[in-house]
Amino acid sequence: MTFSGWLQIILFAAIITALVKPFGGYITRVMQGERTLLSPVLRPIERGLYALAGIDERSDQHWTVYTAAMLIFSGIHVGLLYALQRLQAALPLNPQGLEPVSPDLAFNTAVSFVSNTNWQAYVPETTMSYLVQMAGLAVQNFLSAATGIALAVALARAFARASGKGIGNFWVDSTRCILYILLPISIVAGLFLVWQGVPQNLHAYTEATTVEGTKQVIAQGPVASQLAIKMLGTNGGGFFNANSAHPFENPTALSNLLQILLIFCIGAALTNVFGRMVGDQRHGWAIYAAMAILVLVGVSVVYWAEAAGNPAFAAFNVDSAAGGLQAGGNMEGKEVRFGIALSALFATVTTDASCGAVNAMHDSFMPLGGLVPLFNIQLGEVIVGGVGAGLYGILLFAVLAVFIAGLMVGRTPEYVGKKIEAKEVKMAMLAVLILPLSILGFSAIASVTEAGLAGPANAGPHGFSEMLYAFTSATGNNGSALAGLSANTVFYNTTLGLAMLIGRFLMIVPTMAIAGALVSKKIVPASSGTFPTNTPLFVGLLVGVIVIVGGLTYFPALALGPVVEHFALHAGNLF
Q1: Residue whose C-alpha is closest to residue 225's, from 133, 357, 311
Q2: What is the DSSP letter of 388?
Q3: Among 247-261, 406-420, 441-455, 505-519, which is the least confidently predicted range?
Q4: Beta-carbon-side half-sphere exposure of residue 505 (alpha carbons within 13 Å)
Q5: How many helices and strands, by DSSP H and E, does the chain display?
Q6: Would the pTM count as exceeding 0.85?
Q7: N or C: which end of the chain has fewer CB within 10 A?
Q8: How far is 236 from 134, CA to CA, in rounded Å?
């Protein structure tokens, strides 16, 4: 580990923290329908869209109507994206003449992008036409991200409103997310990325002659526009197979910094949005502090594990120390232009935030370095998390934390003025337990079936880690992978598609049920017996609940994968 490496990590943390309050204020004004700097331009467009769709922006939906609208909307887009892939050979903007996508892969990809997972079991530049990339995948990057933000804001309204019935209007919330937040930032970020060297065109692929005299096909296309929303919406799907390790997707240090800032900026700012909506910004900072602690611990462990290098090389007298001529450490699967520190930071950020984009290959990380991204996702993607999903995910754990605190003092627990009773706790536990049921259940099936065992490229604990990571990533709607798994098979396309649906939508329903129960309750004034939720004690309790629940749930599976692999790798040094 080096001083410059830590300086880069600290700089990133400082920029994100500085953005939380001003960006949170802007998002709050947008979602409450207040005037912003963009209103003179965008408000007429917004009203026109409502008139065209027949939407009354003043209508307030019951939680069942809000949730049903989201589910129907998502289901329709799964069908449309599936059809677009199956028909791409007959559609325009296909200069490479790509064939239709197979049925199982089309199903997997459609579910993946609609659920904000962006798991890619295919090579994008040789599988998807420009039309599918733009009108299918990039559009879903906007829609799925807007859906997550809308759901988080709806849950925040339930906490903020007293004795109400509605939690907002799904169509209005998602429209405002796209129009005022996602689209303007993506346009600016896309232009910045073009400036940095990211392609943005509709040309056919270029065939070049190398210095050795061989032919090489250089893929290109509308990359920058998809890359911007891929990061901002914590989608993660790459235009190229190498994702953000590809020089066309991530050509410079500035493009790398912009990408990790885009991944975190909305999720971090939503903590401030929640604080503003419930009238306690200090509580928003407490949630952010809990997230920040988990982020910093994670990146520290990954940085340490990767900087230490591979002990298997010790017998060959390989110099793995950092110096003026080399980055040192474990550089397998990493880009030299990013090095150990920025690879560790990117891997931690992308798995904290349900993004799935990578600038280094997680399959090449040391066992403990790879354990952290895996465990980040298994915690429920609540460490900043996907846009919106991270906030409503961590609020579920906050409900459980105050319930535990209430048991300790023998009082009915309260959270930001709302009494937490049996229904809310049951729904929170149901939402939390859905994820391990999918992750561990599908991993167990893959571990004992011929179709499942045919996927991993490695035997032993690392092969198990590849399967466990795949179902963790799919259920957590992350999309990153230990790339040694051959996932483009009927078995994996089908099971991973089902895992994505479970992780996204079965978790949302009990979460929205909590919103429906809370919005009808009165706000109870704080008393001397109320557990304060804006103090370091609450931060510690929240972090403890998240880590303990995750540890108890997944430690046996982790022990069979990265933990035993770590000890096996160091066996020669231990005995």
Answers
A1: 133
A2: T
A3: 406-420
A4: 21
A5: 23, 4
A6: yes
A7: C
A8: 15
